[in-house]
Amino acid sequence: MFRMPAEWARHDAVWTAWPHDPEQWLEGLDAPQRALMQMVAAIVDLDANGQPWGETVNLLVRDETDEHAARALLGPAAKGVQFRHCLYGDVWLRDTGPIFLGRAGEVSAARFRFDGWGGKYVMPGDTDVARRVMEWADVRGASFDFVLEGGAIEVDGEGTLLTTRQCMLGGGRNPGLDQAGLDARLRWALGIETVIWLDRGLQNDHTDGHIDTLARFVAPGVVACMEPAADDPNRDALAGILADLRAARGADDRLLDVVTVPSPGAVLDAAGMVMPASYMNFYISNTTVIVPTYGVPADDAAVAAIAALFPQRRTVAIDGKAVVVGGGAFHCSTQQQPSRQSP
C-alpha cells in the first residue's frame, strides 16, 4: 500500500518556487525573496568542501530573469538547485504541488483539485503545477476529485493524520462532503488509518486553518504544538488544540505524546494587523530543520525547543515575518519528494 511518509523520512528532493507577484507581497518582494533563498541554501546545505549534501531543491521560476535573480541570492548553493521554468501563481508548493506517497522501493503521487484556497487567491498556472511537478519528477499517480491542500494535513508516516474542520469543512472547498465523507477520502488517497480532527486555526490565516501552522508530528506518535502566552491573540484556539491533542489517539490506539513550544504571540504587519505567525511552520530537510522567527522575545526559546526535537539535524532559524505577509512560511512553500530507497 502506498502511504504518505513522515517528513523526517529521507527525501530525494524538495519543490519550491521564486516569489514574483507584487500583488501577493504587499510589503515588497525583496525581503521574502531573500528569506526564501536563505531557506533554499539551508536545504541544499553545503558541506565543508562547498558541496551539497542536504537535498536537491527544484525551484520554479518563470524565466531566465527570475533564475538569474535567484542565483545571485543563492551564491554557491545554486549548485544544488534545479531551476524549472513554468507559469505559476505563487510559492506555495505545499498546496499547489502533488502529495508524494511511498512504499518500499517506489514513489507515487496524488493530485487533488485546487481551487485557490477556497477561491480567495486564484492565480494563473497554479492548477497545473501538480501535473508539471509529477512529470519533472518522473512519478506516476492518481488524481482525486476533491479539494485538498498539502498544508491542511500532517502525518506521522504510520497511519495517523491531523487536519482541521475549519479548513476541510469550511470555506466552500468541498460542498456536499461532511466529515465522515472526507475522512474516508483521506484514508483512501493517502494510506491513512486514523484521522484526528482539530477545530480551528490562527487569526487572519489566509488558508482557513491549515494544520501546518498549528501542530506537527516530530516522531511517530509524538506531536508538537504551541503553548499560548497570557496575552496571545490566539490563546483560545491554541488552548483548544492542546487539549484536543492530549485526548487524541493515533493509529496504534495510544494517546499521542504532546510536546509544546512557545507561541510567538502577537506579530503585527505594517498595517497593525495580527499575522498568522507560527513556529510550527518549520521544514524538516534531510540534514536541517528550517524554523521561522519573527523578531519577538519567544524566538530563541522556540528555536531551542524545536532543535531539541531533532538532535540529528542542524536547526536553522530564518526571519519568516516577510514570508508570512504572503500567506505562509517555510513549510507552506515546500513539498518534499520522498526517497525511493526508504518508505
What are the segments in which pLDDT stays under 50 over at least 5 consecutive residues?
Answer: none
Quick one: overall form?
globular
Assembly of the depicted chains: single chain
- As laid out across the biggest beta sheet, the strand order is 3-2-1-16
Return the structural class: alpha/beta
Please give the CATH architecture: 5-stranded Propeller
Number of helical segments?
A: 10
* CATH homology-level superfamily: L-arginine/glycine Amidinotransferase, Chain A
Beta-strand percent range? 15-25%
Largest sheet, described in full? Answer: 4 strands, mixed
Helical residue percent band = 25-40%
Kindly report the CATH topology: L-arginine/glycine Amidinotransferase, Chain A
How many domains make up the coordinates?
1
Give the overall pLDDT as a whole number: 96
Q: How would you describe what is shown here?
A:
- By secondary structure, the protein is of the alpha/beta class.
- It has one domain (11-338): L-arginine/glycine Amidinotransferase, Chain A, CATH 3.75.10.10.
- The chain is built from ten helices and 16 strands.
- The protein has helices at 30-44, 64-74, 93-96, 116-119, 129-137, 165-169, 179-190, 235-247, 299-309, 321-324, and strands at residues 11-17, 56-61, 81-85, 99-103, 106-113, 141-147, 154-155, 160-164, 194-198, 215-219, 222-227, 257-262, 283-284, 288-293, 314-319, 335-338.
- The strands form five sheets. A four-stranded mixed β-sheet has the order 3-2-1-16. It has a three-stranded mixed β-sheet with strand order 4-5-6, covered by helices on one side.
- Strand 11, helix 8 (235-247) and strand 12 form a beta-alpha-beta unit.
- It is globular and about 50 Å long.
- The protein starts with 10 loop residues before the first strand and ends in a 5-residue tail after the last strand.
- The mean pLDDT is 96.
